[in-house]
Amino acid sequence: MTHPMAIIFVLLTFLAICQAQDATTLPAPTVCIIGSGIGGSSVAHFLRKYSPNSSPSIKIQMLERNGLVGGRMATVNVAGDTFEAGASILHPKNFHALNYSKLLNLEFKEKDSSSGCSSLGIWDGKIFVFKTVKIGCDVPLFDKLVSLVNSLLLFIRYGFSLLKMDSFVEGTVNRFLKYYEEPASRPIFETPDEMLKWAGLYNLTTRTLHDELVDFRLSPLLIKELVTVITRINYGQSVYISGLAGTVSLAGSGGGLWSIKGGNWKMAAGLINQSDVALHLHEEIESIADLGDFYELNSTKGNSYACEVAVVATPLDESNIQFIPQISVSKRKIQHTHTTFVRGLLNPAYFGLSAVMEIPELVGTVEDPDLPFSSISVLKKYDEKDATYKIFSRQPVSDTLLDSIFSVRKETIRIDWPAYPHYHAPEVFTPFLLDDRHLYYVNAFENAASTMETSAVAAENVARLILSRYFGTKSMHSSKFSSGSHREESHVDL
């Protein structure tokens, strides 16, 4: 007669074998990512980087409505030269972007923001209320001398408030660095609110930049002029922008700024190539339906894609994607930036000047609804009578206006960017997780700030959230793509 314990042992062994077979035959999940910008490409990268080796290999499908990858990272060609048309600059402490560049062997191009030969003028529509010295210089020693003179001019006008502004920005940047700590020591967040509170940044989204700077005792003149110029250039908005976005804007005006030679879009392209992604270009998604075991994504071409995980990595604010069942997304207005490239020559008479050489290389503007542009900058000077300029404005710039600003206009390119949210404190955030299953939204973090790096930071969290919820993966440390999994290893001297 068989002993009862032996029967139990045989049954348990049989169940264990069946479970092992089920685990080994579990179909590989498919992740569909809508959007091929820095957010979508970063999600793909971090899914590969953090996926446990014991889990089935994830299949990644990427759906891009345009014919090129990169999203809001794009370039234009003027007179044979390539210029950034969208997201243009990176901060020296943007460690994800630094790691991407190192991993993909991309070449850095440093923005020469510290050169004394780069002049600034603040235009109020009638006069330049402030101008730095503008002298052509090729000798390094003379360059440094001009830079010192301009620093002195800034200090004479704005005083110690300049140092206070640097201190304010540095404190915020240091809190942001918490997002680069070892993944195993960081929580995984389902909402941007939690993510911001953990880093000590949330309160900045509840008040305006103006109020934050007033409390920090910055001078009214500095806020009215220099800070306003910076927020108008970087976000097309005034100092009443929400505090965190405004501080990020200020950080984007400092030294050590850089970009990728040939275009920042190369980061997205490289990450997609590295991450074994099935890329579908010219594929605009019009609906996402939750069918229980999977999501069905339908395109305007009539194609359907089935996936266990769906990631929206494009702003939903001006999107026509239909969700079945409906989802709740906080309403926000998108700030359009009209970028106009002109090859020609500025008209000094428009600025009340007698010679082109008197016009600063960067013309910023104060907040005035009657001013037709936010900034005009020189991108490249070919000779004394020929240059390429970049104009930022909130509204399209007409040919009539351009003909008054320029005495010569050889080529004009216009781009209307749905660039970033129109920031309004207090900000209201949509969760990263849009349902109770596996529908995710990377761009929910854009209500805090919209940059290439903040998109990468949000994407890294979303990738960890996917793996945690789908596989139960808690520790996200991985040796895959090992170039820079720690912040300390990520520093690159620019």
From TrEMBL:
Coiled-coil zones: none
Cofactors, names only: FAD
GO molecular function: prenylcysteine oxidase activity
Entry keyword Signal: yes
InterPro entries: FAD/NAD-bd_sf, Prenylcys_lyase, Prenylcysteine_Oxase1
SUPFAM superfamilies in the record: FAD/NAD(P)-binding domain
Keywords, ordered alphabetically: FAD, Flavoprotein, Glycoprotein, Oxidoreductase, Signal
Residues of the Prenylcysteine lyase domain: 145-473
Domain of life assignment: Eukaryota
GO biological process, one term: prenylated protein catabolic process
Family: Belongs to the prenylcysteine oxidase family.
Name of the protein this chain belongs to: Prenylcysteine lyase domain-containing protein
Protein's organism: Acacia crassicarpa (northern wattle)
